[in-house]
Amino acid sequence: MPIRRFYDRWPQYNRRLTEVVAAMTDQQLAIRPAPDGVPIWATVGHTAAARAYWLSGVVGEPGAVATPWPDPSNDAGWEDDLDRPRTADELVWALDSTFAIVDGCLERWTPDTLDETIERHYADQVQVHSRASILQRLLTHEAYHCGELSQTLGIHGLPQIDLWRPD
User: Fold this and answer.
1) What are 110-163's pLDDT values in tens digits?
2) Which of 135, 70, 137, 129 is nearest to 109 (CA)?
3) What 3-state DSSP class applies to 132?
4) How many other CB atoms are there within 10 angstroms of residue 136's CB atom?
5) Distance from C-alpha of 113 to C-alpha of 122, rounded to nearest angstrom
6) Strands 117-122 and 125-130
7) Burial class (CB in 10 A: 0-12, 13-18, 19+), 129
8) Is the dihedral of CA 103, 23, 89, 39 positive or negative?
9) pLDDT value at position 152?
10) pTM, entire model
11) In angstroms, rounded to a whole number, what is the distance separating the alpha carbons of residues 153 and 149?
């Protein structure tokens, strides 16, 4: 039995984020939450990149080659290059292509596989994460950034990301 039913709203959350981003102009994507904050486009890119990093780079799931991060273990991604702003089309591609990796996990992973552990080599440390903890990390990471983005969008009078809209 796949774990999809336990994460059945995640596709909806991705769709809601993607809908808002797709409708944004380059000028809107350049908005920063504070003078020292990163622009909206970088936060969206970071959110998508985390999926590729954790699921393909750490766990070893397939699919990264079809994303903006074909080598997700590389520390420097295009979301970190603030001199090269990304467009709504690029961000939608990043969200959709990395969600395909998430979607594959929701279909292939089972409740029994959620306890399996993966070693992550980070700096001089070896960290051990379960598949369940990685999914929880990603889902809460996305919710955190959707809230952050919604607050920034709302302050600027733009449509917010309503993850729980009843349609």
Assistant:
1) 999 999 999 998 889 999 999 999 999 999 999 999 999 999 999 999 999 999
2) 135
3) helix
4) 14
5) 23
6) antiparallel
7) middle
8) negative
9) 98
10) 0.95
11) 6
Token digits of residue 88: 């709504």
What does the pLDDT read at residue 75?
64
DSSP H or E segment with residue 126: strand 125-130
Lowest mean pLDDT across 9-18, 66-75, 78-87:
66-75
Say yes or no to pLDDT of 80 above 90: no
DSSP-based three-state secondary structure for 26: helix
Burial of 19 (0-12, 13-18, 19+ CB in 10 A): middle
The answer to whether residues 151 and 41 touch, using CB atoms and an 8 Å cutoff, is no
d(CA 153, CA 92): 17
Contact residues for 164 (Cβ-Cβ < 8 A; gap 6+): none
Contact 102, 10 (CB under 8 A): yes
Q: Phi and psi dihedrals of 33, rounded to 5?
A: -70, -25
Alpha carbon 30 to chain centroid, angstroms:
18
Which residues face 118 on adjacent strands?
129
- Rg from Cα positions in the chain: 16
Interior angle at CA 44, CA 150 and CA 139, nearest 5 = 80
